Amino acid sequence: MTKMIERIERMYKENDNLPILLICHSMGAKMGHYFLNFAKHHKGQSWLDKCKIDFRTRLSGIYLLHILCLTMYRFFETVPV
């Protein structure tokens, strides 16, 4: 996690202090949330505010597969064999 903090700081400085956007996919959304809590605990809220980290973008959360499986199960349950 500390390497990720270092990478975010480097990206922030190299890109003229533009806000950082975390894009997470599937289980990465849980890891992104864990990372933000980790960073807040170790670096403080001021660090999160300084880097302007935005974590509103999640692609295909972990529960999407469960919904798809249930839908397919219901579909095949009604199809005559």
Could you please describe the fold and organization of this structure?
This protein has one domain. A two-stranded parallel sheet has the order 1-2. It is an alpha+beta fold. Helix content is 63%, strand content 17%. The N and C termini lie far apart (51 Å). It is elongated.
How many separate structural domains?
A: 1
- The low-confidence parts are none
Biggest sheet, in brief? 2 strands, parallel
> How many strand segments?
2
Distance between the termini: 51 Å
Q: Beta-strand level of the residues, as a percent range?
A: 15-25%
> In percent, how helical is the residue content?
55-70%
Read across the widest sheet, the strand sequence of neighbours is 1-2
How do the helices and strands follow one another from N- to C-terminus? HEHHEH
Query: Which class of secondary structure composition applies to the elements?
Result: alpha+beta
Mean pLDDT: 77
Write the layout of secondary structure elements.
Layout: H1 2-14, E1 21-26, H2 28-43, H3 45-51, E2 54-61, H4 64-78
Parallel strand pairs: 1-2
Outline of the structure:
Helices cover about 65% and strands about 15% of the residues. It has helices spanning about 1-15, 30-45, 45-50, 65-80, and strands at about 20-25, 55-60. Strands 1-2 form a two-stranded parallel ribbon.
